[in-house]
Design a protein that fits this description.
Layout: H1 2-23, H2 29-32, E1 54-64, E2 70-79, E3 85-95, E4 104-105, E5 109-114, E6 117-119, E7 122-124, E8 127-131, E9 147-159, E10 162-177, E11 183-200, E12 203-218, E13 228-244, E14 246-247, E15 253-259, E16 262-267, E17 270-286
Antiparallel strand pairs: 1-2, 1-17, 2-3, 3-4, 3-5, 5-8, 6-7, 7-9, 8-9, 9-10, 10-11, 11-12, 12-13, 13-15, 13-16, 14-15, 15-17, 16-17
Length: about 290
């Protein structure tokens, strides 16, 4: 239980700093009273960049219903300096489902998003990411090399009660490693779609679907060394969930959420089904007074 307790301690430390930040600023009371949830979904990006003067802290925790494996992530999103450009980072903590494995920091992501489209109920915000090799391929917490990732999030407000979010993305790790230390090239393609229903402004019902395909190729280290394609793996995640927003006069919005993802993985003709529990908690608040 040390791993989950460590994760909980980190999350509580982040929460503890929010009141301090709020005392240093104020926002008009009427702006937060009925603020809708324009947040990241649990597994899918929504194409809403952070507004000028507003920062968001996002915590997620996913644990399979069997085994020891779990994943915690902390993301912080900042306008740069306004809604047009956004900078963020994500720090994952991974507990591999293996005997003797311990919680480790995974590959840290440095993100840039450009708000290319905003208005008429349509939003588009392409993202570019550098994945730093801070994790360990041998211990199941990283890709073993620096990676590049791109994603194309599109959000459509279909009606006052319905919204849809589409993601198309890919990842390339040109100098990665297998778990046994062999040099490899790793590629991933992801397609994702969510539908969100708003029974109320501050309460959302969500259905997210994510399909992913990963391929790899061993690199020839020297003349005569073995090389070739690695087995392709695919996964499909179907995740129903719900989230609720607590809005405060100071401009703070707290959004807790829960989901129950079902993951179907395929590898070498075999398939496995794994349910899990997903917890979400975000804090969004002004960090300075905006005129």
């Amino acid at each position: 239980m040390r791993g989950p307790l460590l994760v909980a301690s980190v999350a509580l430390a982040v929460v503890a700093h929010v009141p301090t930040l709020l005392r240093a600023q104020s926002a008009p009371p009427d702006t937060a009273a009925a603020a809708p949830i324009e947040d990241n979904s649990f597994l899918i990006e929504e194409a809403y960049n952070q507004e000028r003067g507003v920062v968001q802290h996002i915590n997620t925790f996913q644990h399979a219903t069997t085994g020891r494996g779990w994943l915690y992530t902390f993301t912080q999103e900042w306008p740069a300096p306004g809604i047009r450009h956004q900078l963020s980072y994500t720090i994952p903590v991974v507990q591999a489902d293996a005997p003797g494995a311990s919680a480790r920091v995974g590959d840290v992501a440095l993100n840039y998003r450009f708000q290319a489209l905003e208005g008429n109920h349509r939003y588009f915000a392409p993202r570019l990411t550098v994945l730093l090799p801070t994790g360990s391929a041998a211990r199941g917490s990283g890709a073993g090399g620096t990676g590049l990732q791109a994603d194309l999030p599109l959000s459509l407000e279909l009606s006052p009660r319905w919204a849809a979010h589409t993601n198309v993305g890919g990842t390339l790790v040109p100098h990665g490693e297998t778990s046994d230390g062999q040099a490899m090239i790793a590629r991933n393609v992801t397609l994702a779609q969510s539908v969100i229903y708003l029974p109320a402004t501050t309460f959302n019902l969500m259905l997210e679907t994510v399909w992913s395909r990963t391929t790899g190729e061993l690199k020839r280290a020297q003349a005569g060394a073995a090389s070739g394609d690695l087995p392709t793996s695919q996964s499909l995640v179907v995740s129903p969930g719900a989230r609720y927003a607590f809005n405060f006069a100071s401009g703070l919005q707290i959004v807790p959420g829960v989901a129950v993802p079902l993951t179907i993985t395929g590898h070498s003709g075999a398939y496995d089904t794994q349910p899990s529990v997903f917890l979400y908690l975000s804090f969004e608040h002004p960090f300075r007074h905006v005129q």
